[in-house]
Amino acid sequence: MVFWRQNPLICEINAWTWLHSLSTLYNRPVTFGSIPDEVLTPLAQWKFDAVWLMGVWERSPAGREISLGHPHLQDEYRRALPNYTKADVIGSPYSIRRYEVDPHLGGRNELAALRKRLEKLGIKLVLDFVPNHTAIDCSWLAECPDYFVQGVSEDLEAQPEFFFAVPGGDGRSLIFANGRDPYFPAWTDTAQINAFNPHLRSQAVTTLLDIASQCDAVRCDMAMLVTNRIFSQTWGPGVGPEPETEYWHVVIPAIKAKYPHFLFLAEVYWDMEWKLQQQGFDYTYDKRLYDYLKNEPVRSILTHLQGDLNYQSHMVRFIENHDEQRAARTFGPGRAQAAAVLVTTLPGATLLHEGQFYGHRIKLPVQLGYRPVEETDPEIEAFYHVLLAEVSKPIYHNGTWRMRETMPAWDLNATHKNLIAYTWQSNSSDRRLIVINYSSTGSQGRVLLPDMHGTDRIWKLQDQLDGSVYERSGKEMADVGLYVDLSPWQSHIFDFR
Fold it and tell me: Count of CB atoms within 10 A of residue 242's CB?
């Protein structure tokens, strides 16, 4: 049994492009079984709890052909790789033909060997599961067509963007729906699963038990699409009556019965995070916080963080992943670091993206198997080394988190409203205060620390980000608050001594 600590740090790595880059670097084919030690050891030095190897399952040849011919995707390829070739396009990792480790990456046995090596470094392994769809050439289509949403020839003729035909054994074609969510065009390289079908749910359990034998957690793609309400709204009466039991209420307990410490992470949108936590997910994406950090004023962030602590503690915080633009480009200098301090020091899991801590700026389409070489930004790399070393400390994983109120530093100064402040405390002598000026203007304020009553002595406050030390009275911090003056996008992480 593999135990997870609270509030884990998870790094997403694109498996295919990672191995391609290593093969280029070492001038030989590198697969999961032949990754050099000097590549794996830094993952432990970054203090990650787990690595999410995105895209290990066998991809679809039919899906690759669709990816090659898609005009919108071709534009994305050119933005990332102006001189891309057909050989660079490998198809989507979310158009899965089989839940078998792709032979190109080394296959199941090599992944198992890699997992053991990661375990010795204290790093767990996260893999993907896609509940909503398979590739259009998945063997299940021929073997178990009732697993899928089916149509008729009139559907294909009237809405060819939503349906596709597969030759049947009797010479007639079977019509299947492409996978989709209700607000966007269909994913034409996928086949839509019927989440209401009890046999399909049983197959999902079997598949996940096999996946769980190979890793320590799964990240479930678009997990809200198979909930009863959303699935019914998307597909209507043609998929059969709505079951009494939710898909995830069937699937998750069956896996946890055998692997009790196995984690389920949900990619989820539309404010359905709490719903999926109630259905058994250990962690759910906090896309709302990401959007607020990118587009909204500080008051929206503060309101969001005042939610129930149990809810907050089961969120996945991030400022980039393979679906989003790179943080260095989206947020820009200073702001990206302020956002990183916030998401890594909040309760809940933190998702970091390969290249984020080097300042990479190119968003790579997941259909590409090759990534361009980017220079490392030494300032950003140094910042993340300091930050991740700090947030790996036990206080962030076994301590108590609490939001703190900020007050004006003097009359008519409203800049304290730009400050986000909270504390971690694990015992009377181990505490942190995080204060972030999430704005483009200098901000001043006082952070009230009423629990410093009874500590009427001089405290040394050491900033864990830059090493600076301040001396302050416990009585002053309790009665009128700790005065802070922060430049635009600047942060403090104070250790009280």
Answer: 13
* Mean pLDDT of all residues in 399-407: 95
CB 63 within 8 A of CB 136: yes
pLDDT, position 1: 53
Instruction: State both tokens at 451.
Output: 């629990």
Q: CA 384 to CA 105: how far, in whole Å?
A: 29
Nearest CA to 65 out of 137, 129, 17 is that of 137
Burial 381-419 (b: 16+ CB within 10 A, else e): eebbeebbebbbbebbbebebeebebeebeeeeebbbbb
- CB–CB of 466/492 below 8 Å? no
As a whole number of angstroms, the distance between CA 87 and CA 370 comes to 9
Q: Which two tokens stand for residue 279?
A: 């259905």
Rounded to the nearest angstrom, the gap between the alpha carbon of residue 395 and the centroid of all alpha carbons in its chain is 23
pLDDT in the model for residue 128: 98
* Phi, psi (degrees; rounded to nearest 5) at 204: -60, -40
DSSP 493: E
Mean of pLDDT values over 72-100: 95
Q: What is the pTM of this model?
A: 0.95
Would you say residue 219 has pLDDT above 80?
yes
Q: In the numeric block, which tokens belong to residue 356? A: 């984020």
pLDDT at residue 428, rounded to an integer: 64
Look-up of token digits 């290593």:
22
pLDDT tens digit sequence for 145-159: 999 999 888 888 888
Helix (H, G, I), strand (E, B) or coil at 329: helix
Contact (Cβ atoms closer than 8 angstroms) between residue 484 and residue 448: no
- Give the end-to-end CA distance of the chain in Å, rounded to a whole number: 37
Question: Which SS3 state, helix, strand or coil, does residue 426 take?
Answer: strand
What residue ranges in 195-271 does DSSP mark as E strands?
Answer: 217-220, 263-266
Cβ proximity of 55 and 99 under 8 Å:
no
Tell me, what's the pLDDT at 152? 86
Half-sphere exposure of 218 (CA within 13 A, CB side): 28
**Residue 143 burial by CB count (10 A; 0-12/13-18/19+): exposed, middle or buried?**
exposed
Task: Note the pLDDT tens digit of each residue in 341-382.
Answer: 999 999 999 999 999 999 999 999 999 999 999 999 999 999
Q: Work out the mean pLDDT of the chain and round it to a whole number.
A: 95
Residue for token digits 């787990």? 50
The Cα-based distances of 116 to 22, 125, 262, 361 in angstroms read 20, 10, 16, 32
Place 309 in a pLDDT band, splitting at 50, 70 and 90: very high
Distance CA 305, CA 242 (A): 35
CB 220 within 8 A of CB 269: no
Tell me the pLDDT band of 473, cut-offs 50, 70 and 90. Answer: very high
State how far the Cα of 433 lies from the Cα of 395, in Å rounded to an integer.
12
Tell me the C-alpha distance between 159 and 99, whole Å. 30
